[in-house]
Amino acid sequence: MRESGGSKAPAAQATSSEFGVYCHIPFCTHRCDYCAFATWTDRSHLIVDYMENCRRQAQELAGDLPPVTSVFFGGGTPNLVEPSLLADVLKELPLAQDAEVTVECNPDLVTEDQVQAYAGMGVNRVSLGVQSMVSHVLEALGRRHDPQMVAASVTAIRNAGIDRLNLDLIFGSLAESVSDWKQTLVDAIALEPDHLSVYGLTPEPGTALGDDPSRHPDDDDMADKYLLTDDLLDQAGYEIYEISNWARPGSQCRHNLLYWQQGSYAGIGCAAHSHRDGRRYWSVRTPERFIAAISTGISATAGSEELDSDERRIEALQLALRTSAGVPADVVPDDVAHLLTPASQGRLKLTALGRLVANEVAIRLELPTRR
Asked: Averaged over 155-180, what is the pLDDT?
């Protein structure tokens, strides 16, 4: 899962005092070949109206929210929007004093003035969509930036005093050799981010990648690259805390953890998902429908669902399995036990090889009461 709430997130029971807000920015200048998110390249004329209605929705929600400990502006391309419009949404929220505030950015759109404005409005974390540090791989992914833009963006972010930096990376393109991927990892580590999110390329239906089987990733190649990632990041001092996320000690993404630890969060904007009190619900998908709903005082909710207690318990285990905290040993059947290793206090976590087949392990987990 990406660091966002724009795609369907798990139902959950609140487990802590953490509460997050995700604001979906559905605008892009260009759609990448692998992207299946709710984003549009021909709606820039809606940006101001859309952001005003995000502000209105935040204002309406604010009175019913606890202190917000994390805010994530995701998309889409949030740094396609003027920082002041993001700030208007942020100002409506009851932020906790130590709130983590993240903005996703594309390197080709980062400017010194932009990130200075982010810092001034309280942004303390940037998630930079790097994907690769090799030019021909970026081209194959349909990205429009180059590695030099990444380095310049990192410098600008650091100069602005934003002290938390995540780099998003994607492996698995057939245009990318193992050597290319190693170069991306080495160059990314050299930029000294405190967090890296590393995702396997997924051919989603309806995308340019998904619709062309000749470009689909090779499973063995993906496995080799994932294991290489685990080795190099471990050697560089990064700790894995979720299958696709590594961080320096103490630099885990608080908003990310909400999803994996079954926390509560509210979504703002079109296609945003929310969870509170065991119920999850989601907004209308398009910016036009969202604007029409909020501007006329109609709910933007498109649907909802609620799992029963046993379903939520199973889901909690399946989510925890993805993390370094692992699951209680007594929920792991014998036929997959070799794919896990001790975590702490009677819990087991996936080995590196186990993470390669995490979904297969997850569907085999059993509630103790059902044995």
From this structure: 98
107-144 per-residue burial string, b: 16 or more CB within 10 A, e: under 16: bbbbeeebbbbbbeeebbbbbbbbbbbbeebbebbbbe
User: 283: which strand partners?
Assistant: 301
d(CA 191, CA 19): 31
Q: Token pair for residue 118?
A: 């982010």
CB distance 190 to 182 below 8 Å: no
Structure tokens at 148: 């030099």
Distances (CA, A) of 279 to 10, 113, 125, 300, 304: 10, 40, 29, 16, 7
Rounded-to-integer distance, Cα 167 and Cα 106, Å: 11
Specify the 3-state DSSP secondary structure of 63. Answer: coil
Structural domains in the chain, sorted by start = 19-260 (3.20.20.70), 309-370 (no CATH)
E strands of 248-320, at which residues?
A: 264-268, 273-276, 279-283, 301-306
Structural contact between residues 130 and 150, judged by C-beta atoms closer than 8 angstroms: yes
* CA gap 54, 269 in Å, rounded: 6
Total residues belonging to the chain: 371
Whether the ω angle into residue 75 lies within 30 degrees of 0, i.e. cis, is no
pTM of the model: 0.94
**Tokens for 158?**
């650091």
- Interval 294-339: pLDDT, tens: 999 999 999 999 989 999 999 999 999 999 999 999 999 999 999 9
**Tally of helices (H runs) and strands (E runs) in the chain:** 12, 15
Please state, in angstroms and as integers, the Cα–Cα distance from residue 56 to each residue in 3, 77, 219, 270, 289, following that order.
24, 21, 45, 13, 15
